[in-house]
Amino acid sequence: ENGYVVLNIQTMLTVYNALRYGKKYDGKFITVTNVQKRTGVAVYVPFGTSVSKIANEYLGELEDGLRLLAGSGVMKAHVVEGDELTTKETNFIAYGEPPMHKETTDCMYCNACIRACPMEIKVKTLVDNILNGYFNEAAVYGPERCIGCNSCSYVCFYRRNNPQVILEYNQRRAKAE
Fold it and tell me: Across the chain, how many H-helices and E-strands are there?
């Protein structure tokens, strides 16, 4: 009768458990991965659990040359210092190298960013329009649909920080309106 918007299976499971069993939202499924080995698992983690404990349990000991990372996704992860605890924003724990964005306009025209975008945004064209000051043209490519997942930057050979460009554009548009 009221309707619900479900963005992913985790949200659906959380809503179901809350409505059916009165279960409190006290944890979530996250990705735990070794980026170099390309192995990983999805595990349920209560909020406030030690990031290093989770990594050790599911990935084993930290290998030389790799760092322990945590964050909301692969390109939004940071190096874990000390005994960091999981929060509602933690979606990703990994062994790997810290993500690197470049503030560059370089592009190989490979269109990997477009293929990686879950919202099917023509990322390259949108960002190029924004960077060249063609703001009205940029609006045609649906910048408001960008969810900031960083998939486009993750696959970019130049590691362009496309989501940041789009976010700043959206913020300027919102202020202008």
Answer: 7, 5
Do 92 and 75 form a contact (C-beta atoms < 8 A)?
no
Q: Return the residue matching tokens 């060249």.
A: 132
* Per-position b or e across 49-71, b if 16+ CB within 10 A of its CB: bebbebbeebbeeeeeebebbbb
Cβ-Cβ contacts under 8 Å for 78 (sequence gap 6 or more): 69, 70, 71, 98
Residue 143: Cβ-neighbour burial (10 angstroms; 0-12, 13-18, 19+): buried
Q: Which two tokens stand for residue 18?
A: 């809350």
CB 101 within 8 A of CB 40: no
Q: 67-71 and 27-34 as β-strands: parallel, antiparallel, unpaired? A: unpaired
Name the residue among 113, 112, 108 with its Cα closest to residue 127: 113
Is the overall model pTM greater than 0.85, yes or no? no
CB 68 within 8 A of CB 95: yes
- What average pLDDT does this structure show over 87-109? 80
